[in-house]
Amino acid sequence: MKITKYGKDVVLKMLVITILIDLIAFLIPNVIIKIILFSFSILLFGFTLWFFRDPTRKLPSNVTEKTIISPADGKVVLVEEIINKEDNLFPKGEKLKQVSIFLSPLNVHVNCHPVTGIIDYFKYIEGEYLVAFDHKSSERNERTEIGIKTLKGDNILFKQIAGFVARRIVCNLKLGDEVYMGEKFGMIKFGSRVDMLLPLTSKINVKPGDKTKTGETIIGEF
Questions:
Q1: What's the DSSP call for residue 72?
Q2: Which residue, among 173, 175, 52, has the nearest Cα to 105 in the 3D structure?
Q3: Which of 88, 129, 138, 164 has a CA that sits 20 to 30 A from residue 103's CA?
Q4: Any idea where the domains of the chain sit in the sequence?
């Protein structure tokens, strides 16, 4: 199982903690406590490896320059028309379509680019840590906002949003970067949400309740 480079530091820390727990268990004479500690250490390290897994994903064979793929694994919790409340990649007050994906701690948390293009907008915002399935988290939680202008001139803004458990957003991007559909660029650690803001004319192929896979699920098209 491949481990993402964004989580190797955490995996090493958890390995040290696991070894310490096992040493303590080895020194304790009580068999029941020994078994409990050994079991806990195995589960703890096993969950850490599982959380930071980075499976290989392949783009669908039918993608075009107008295709929008999912930047995250998870469950679609919102598909609706909104009024843009900020002056970001899109003008303030413009009508847009929003697709929101909730990531549980069991999902793959590595993110990828939904389209090919240029980073035309980037902003990191400090904020709160509401539960990620609360729709208010889109505007109030810690997040990065990433805007891409595609080769065809279409715009898409998507947000990495920290949740109640998540406390670290990893995003290795800057303005002017050339990015490619399906290319991995970062992750949100331990439960999170990704919002996608699209032009009103975009066709959306998913609905609330649908499951998505990073780099494989087609969200829609421009």
A1: S
A2: 52
A3: 88
A4: 5-51, 67-221
- Domain 67-221 belongs to what topology? Glucose Permease (Domain IIA) (2.70.70)
* Joined tokens for residue 211: 């499951």
pLDDT tens digits, one per residue of 162-194: 866 555 788 889 999 999 999 999 888 766 889
In whole angstroms, give the CA distance from residue 184 to residue 190: 18
pLDDT in tens, 22-80: 999 999 999 999 999 999 999 999 988 988 899 999 999 999 999 999 999 999 999 99
What CA dihedral angle connects 187, 57, 175 and 197, to 10 degrees?
Answer: -80
**113 vs 42, 89, 172, CA distance in Å?**
34, 16, 12
DSSP letter for each residue of 69-128? E-SS-EEEEEEEEEE--S-SSS-TT-EEEEEEEEE-TTS--EEE-SS-EEEEEEEEE--B
Using one digit for the tens of pLDDT, what is the confidence trace for 111-155?
999 999 999 999 988 866 555 455 554 566 788 999 999 989 999
Distance CA 77, CA 134 (A): 10
Q: Is 8 helix (H, G, I), strand (E, B) or coil?
A: helix
**Residue 45 C-beta-side C-alpha neighbours within 13 Å:** 16
Q: Which residues are catalytic?
A: 192
d(CA 174, CA 177): 6
